[in-house]
Amino acid sequence: MNIEDLLRETLSDMAHEEQPPPPGRFFQVNRGRSRRRGLALATAAAVAVMAVGSTLVVQGLSSQVAVSKDLATRGSGETLAETEQVRTTLTVREGLRLLQTLEQLSTATGRPRAEFERAAGNGKALGLPAYARGALEGFAFPGTYEVSPTSSPGELLAAMVTRFNRAAEASDLVDGAGRVGRTPLEILTIASIVQAEATDRRDMPKIARVIHNRLNHKPEMRLSMDSTIMYGLNKSGVTASDEDLGSRSPYNTYARLGLPPGPICNPGPDAIEAALKPATGPWLYFVTTDREKGVTKFATSESEFFELVEEFKRNRGTD
Fold it and tell me: H-helix or E-strand containing 148?
């Protein structure tokens, strides 16, 4: 039985209770509760999620119980859609940082951003995988969501994590990471850099290859990614200034070897796929020579790289 079937049965049982269950019920699993219900609620992380095409419908469980009880007392000819409250549809695009995502959710729902920030800090309740280490950055999966007025920030964020977990399973993230000698969190971190740096999804596998090649290079080679510096400084854009390069942030991949501590944005499926299955090639450098046109070029030597940098400067009108 899958989780949606478990949820469906659990909701049916709950429809006969006298009062809607308190929110805390879905964040804890009591020892006396049946194993089936405990598993359903813990895994669902306090949220009912229904897939409708490429859209996820997010609705608080308590509101679903109320709707179920209402339908039980109404004529059988009425549909669920006729009794539901109006939902808000929102699309969270790929590559947003977590703070940007929380701001968008706050604007779309009318709830204070502080409520989303508090909910984001409770990784266990959101259903994050163990390798996330409790941090939501990188795991708030982009996509289209329909949210009911009764959906709480925790329920909405849990739905985004649920969607991530489904995507991770579909892409075989855990086993795929092992096949390329990385942990799942490292792959997601690579995917987030690819997402931030790419202007064309067709370049993602080659950008991922550059990152893998640098990480595997002997002698060790720094990633030197502007996007990670800008994330660490909480600045927009992906082009770091000379002053930015002096940052002491752990996200300064010009100064520190290896990957940054974690993802720098929430990547989409294309970037995750690229991180798991990078293109084959010897490239060690890439430069987006014309960002407006989305042109990115790749190089294998430092001299080729400097030529691309000069091309970038010419296109930008700088010396």
Answer: none
Number of domains in the chain: 2
> In sequence order, what are the residues at sequence separation of 6 or more whose Cβ sits closer than 8 angstroms to the Cβ of residue 85?
63, 148, 149, 150
Residue 14 is assigned to a structural domain of this protein: yes
Determine the Cα angle at 218 with ends 212 and 222, to 5°: 60
| Whole-angstrom distance, CA of residue 6 vs CA of residue 11 | 9
Structural domain boundaries enclosing 232 = 175-281
**187 shares a domain with 82:** no
Secondary structure class of 51 (helix, strand, coil): strand
Q: Is residue 287 assigned to a domain? A: no
Contact status, residue 214 vs residue 282, Cβ threshold 8 Å: no
Q: What does the pLDDT average to over 83-105?
A: 87
* Tens-place pLDDT, residues 162-221: 999 999 999 999 999 999 999 999 999 999 999 999 999 999 999 999 999 999 999 999
Q: What are phi and psi of 89, to 5 degrees?
A: -95, 130
For residues 229 and 265, state if they share a domain.
yes
pTM: 0.78
